């Protein structure tokens, strides 16, 4: 059966995106930067601003911080694993309600040791494992390994390039973990996809609701001119679609 009032998580890259998600009634945000790279760790200042905005709105469990040190895959060396641990501790000290992490071994299996270390660093904060599972050699098996680690939820497209193609995988993942891990569908989600995702039995949906904005020129050394911003209308529409189940 479709889930009623399916929680919606919005990936945001700035304080304005946090406010949009709060005002629209999103369940939470995944706070990050560089969504064009799949998302990287946001600045300490942005984490603090998001926590303050959620507190001012009296919304709890809202700020979940992506902790990913770089693009280019999920196999990390010892320095990177330690750096992620430090960033997790810093995010939790700043008041984040949860962190979003993931790591892989060269053989295509999840790096359970790194993830367990990060879960310990997170303490009482929620831990979501991100779409590293979709890059695994066996995505369903990767998700099935998460309950033993104590992961709260997993963000996944069902092992496919996007959630539409991944509907069978999402259903298989949900069946594999039952109620032990929340399965959150994310990856190319459009508003029109949300009713079908709800019917697949997922526990939440995740989207970035991005639009491209230009504000001045990048110029030499400034990179590209355009940047991503959260589109308020898309966020509102997504939450309305999720509420219909």
From TrEMBL:
Transmembrane segments: none annotated. It holds the Pfam family CutC. InterPro entries: CutC-like, CutC-like_dom_sf. The keyword rRNA-binding does not apply. The keyword Cytoplasm applies. It comes from the Bacteria. Keywords: Cytoplasm. It is found in: Cytoplasm. Its main location: cytoplasm. Belongs to the CutC family. This is PF03932 family protein CutC. It comes from Agromyces marinus. The lineage of its organism: Bacteria, Bacillati, Actinomycetota, Actinomycetes, Micrococcales.
């Amino acid at each position: 059966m479709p889930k009623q009032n399916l929680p919606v998580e919005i990936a945001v890259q700035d304080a304005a995106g946090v406010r949009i998600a709060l005002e629209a009634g999103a369940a939470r945000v995944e706070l990050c930067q560089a969504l064009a790279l799949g998302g990287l760790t946001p600045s300490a200042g942005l984490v603090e601003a998001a926590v303050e905005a959620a507190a001012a709105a009296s919304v709890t469990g809202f700020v979940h911080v992506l902790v990913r040190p770089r693009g280019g895959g999920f196999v990390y060396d010892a320095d990177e694993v330690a750096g992620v641990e430090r960033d997790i501790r810093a995010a939790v000290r700043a008041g984040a309600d949860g962190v979003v992490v993931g790591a892989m071994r060269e053989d295509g299996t999840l790096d359970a040791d790194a993830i367990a270390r990060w879960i310990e660093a997170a303490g009482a904060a929620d831990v979501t494992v991100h779409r590293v599972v979709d890059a695994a050699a066996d995505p369903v098996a990767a998700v099935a390994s998460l309950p033993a680690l104590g992961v709260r939820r997993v963000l996944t497209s069902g092992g496919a390039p996007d959630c539409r193609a991944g509907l069978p995988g999402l259903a298989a993942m949900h069946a594999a973990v039952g109620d032990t891990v929340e399965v959150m569908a994310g990856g190319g989600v459009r508003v029109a996809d949300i009713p079908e995702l709800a019917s697949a039995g997922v526990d939440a949906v995740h989207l970035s609701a991005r639009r491209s904005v230009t504000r001045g020129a990048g110029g030499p050394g400034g990179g590209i001119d355009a940047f991503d911003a959260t589109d308020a209308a898309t966020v509102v529409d997504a939450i309305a679609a999720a509420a219909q189940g």
